[in-house]
Design a protein that fits this description.
The chain has 316 residues and is an all-alpha fold. It has one domain: Ferritin, core subunit, four-helix bundle (Ferritin, Up-down Bundle). It has 13 helices and two strands, in the order ααααααααααββααα. Strand 1 and strand 2 form a beta hairpin. Helix 2 packs antiparallel against helix 4 and helix 6 runs parallel beside helix 8. The longest helix has 29 residues. The two termini are 35 Å apart. Bound molecules: Phenylacetyl coenzyme A. The site of Phenylacetyl coenzyme A (FAQ) has 29 residues, from helix 2, helix 6 and helix 9.
Length: 316
């Protein structure tokens, strides 16, 4: 039984593990707030992967070649798989996938704001792979070292696949920039529309991020929102320049070099009113994304029922 004295002892053991970089595992004692924090963050992460299939799924039937269709299908399937790894990691914290889905459908759970923007043409598929997956990897590479074992291990698998996704998107942009003037204009238009939403994926400034302090103390997040955003900006601008694209920010300026000799850039600030409006449900596609998920979930009820019936029969 847990008493006040042994809670203090358990907390000491927990903190010693965090200090020593020993992963916290599902059966280990953990403070209630640590568990709640993980349930919230992994929920938003898992839902992002699953809702993130929608803007790209819209383009499977219109991919310009069999090769690009096959690659896009595989990528979207990977994103669904990432959602499953994450829901499974979350289940080890005592929340079922059904509960997570109910919270999503009731508007109580968040997912990445970037997926509430529309994918209007094929160049957007390039921009999503390059910028959205590129931002996701920057965050997720850091999360590989998160303190909760199942989340960390899910991240290691996910990062391997995300780096392929980022290259898939960059290849589309690069091909378009080698193409006709119209294709080049489409590629530039796509980066113009996806650059800012991609930067918003890292969340509010550290000074406005209520979750960062505990997340860093418990080593759930290993780097802050602003630090990760800077890393993404510094690595992505040279990639844009290499293929002749410009990021849509007139204030981009090199202000120094990092330890690896790479440029560090100054840039404009995000439109935070737009960010919070989209996070709070008022983006261009919030309603569409959620309604689509609800409909697909309802239409898939028979699959879940069959799987459960099969499971019950084989376990008899
Ligand atoms: N969108 O105090 P913070 C992918 C919320 S996967 C929506 O800074 P925290 C793969 C935040 O949840 C991309 N909400 O919070 C793919 C919190 O709300 P709450 C997803 C946002 O947790 C690619 C509140 O604002 N990746 O893309 C956003 O310390 C292509 C206060 O914020 C992850 O989820 C936002 N952008 O930091 C799939 C990574 N930003 O819960 C298909 C894991 C903030 O208090 C195609 N998550 N909020 O009501 C994280 O690293 C963190 O949760 C952050 C936010 C960095 C997102």
């Amino acid at each position: 039984m847990e008493t006040l004295e042994n809670t203090e002892e358990l907390l000491k053991v927990f903190e010693a593990k965090i200090d020593a970089e020993i992963k916290i595992e599902p059966r280990d004692w953990m403070p209630g707030d640590y568990r709640k924090h993980l349930i919230r963050q992994i929920s938003q992460h898992a839902h992002s992967e699953v809702i993130g299939m929608q803007p790209e799924g819209n383009w499977i039937s219109r991919a310009p070649s069999l090769r690009s269709k096959k690659i896009l299908l595989a990528k979207i399937q990977d994103e669904g798989g990432h959602g499953l790894y994450l829901y499974s990691a979350a289940e080890t914290l005592g929340v079922s996938r059904d509960e997570y889905i109910q919270w999503l459908h009731a508007g109580k759970a968040k997912y990445a704001s970037v997926f509430n923007y529309p994918a209007l043409n094929w160049a957007d598929i390039g921009a999503i792979g390059w910028l959205v997956d590129g931002a996701a990897i920057t965050n997720q590479v850091s999360l590989q070292r998160t303190s909760y074992g199942p989340y960390s291990r899910a991240m290691i698998r996910i990062c391997k696949e995300e780096s392929f996704h980022q290259r898939q998107g960059y290849e589309i942009m690069w091909k378009m920039m080698e193409g006709t003037k119209d294709q080049q204009r489409m590629a530039q238009d796509a980066i113009n529309r996806w650059w800012w939403p991609a930067l918003m994926m890292f969340g509010p400034h550290d000074s406005d991020s209520p979750r960062t302090s505990n997340a860093m103390k418990w080593k759930i997040k290993r780097e802050t929102n602003d630090r990760l955003r800077e890393k993404f900006i510094n690595k992505t601008i040279p990639q844009a320049e290499l293929i002749g694209l410009k990021v849509p920010d007139p204030n981009i300026k090199v202000i120094g070099k990092d330890q690896m000799g790479e440029n560090i850039y100054e840039h404009s600030d995000i439109n935070w009113d737009e960010f919070w409006s989209v996070v709070n449900g008022n983006g261009p596609c919030n309603e569409q994304r959620l309604n689509h998920h609800i409909r697909a979930h309802e239409e898939g009820a028979w699959v879940r029922e069959c799987a459960q019936a099969y499971n019950a029969k084989t376990n008899q």
